[in-house]
Every structure is written in C-alpha cells, then in structure tokens.
From TrEMBL:
Organism for this UniProt entry: Azospirillum brasilense
Signal peptide: none
Chain ranges passing through the membrane: 21-43
Domain of life: Bacteria
Name used for this protein in its record: Twin-arginine translocation signal domain-containing protein
Residue numbers spanned by region Disordered: 41-60
Length: 74
C-alpha cells in the first residue's frame, strides 16, 4: 500500500507558512511599538520651590505627643 504523503507535506508547509507569518507579524508589531516608544518622550522634571509655609516646622511638643512617646517607651 502506497500512501500519498504529499497531503501531509502540504499540511506541514501550510503550518510552517502560518507560523512564519505569525512570527513576522510579531516582529513587525514589536518594531512598531519600539518606534512609537522612541517618539514619545517624557517631559523634563520641574523642581518645586517651597514657600515659607511649606518650610516651617509642623511638629509641636504637646501633651498628646508626650503621651505617645511615653507609651512607646514601654
């Protein structure tokens, strides 16, 4: 009995072509994403100048703070 292996080869060739087109598509997609990322640039960071209100100390030594430290010493 002689089998017709040409059908199997055709199926393998078709699967190989599908795999190649998938890999080619992934490669093109990755290249497109890299090109898009290269065109998008982050804005330079700007330093904030704190005014006198932000620079003043907010710590106040009151009864609540003293009690907190006393309880944490235990």
């Amino acid at each position: 009995m002689h089998r017709d292996d040409s059908r199997n080869d055709g199926g393998q060739k078709k699967a190989g072509l599908e795999r190649r087109s998938l890999l080619k598509g992934l490669g093109l997609g990755a290249a497109g994403a890299a090109a898009a990322a290269a065109t998008l640039r982050a804005a330079p960071a700007e330093a904030m100048d704190p005014g006198p209100e932000e620079m003043r100390s907010r710590y106040r030594d009151n009864d609540h703070v003293k009690r907190f430290y006393a309880l944490n010493r235990l």
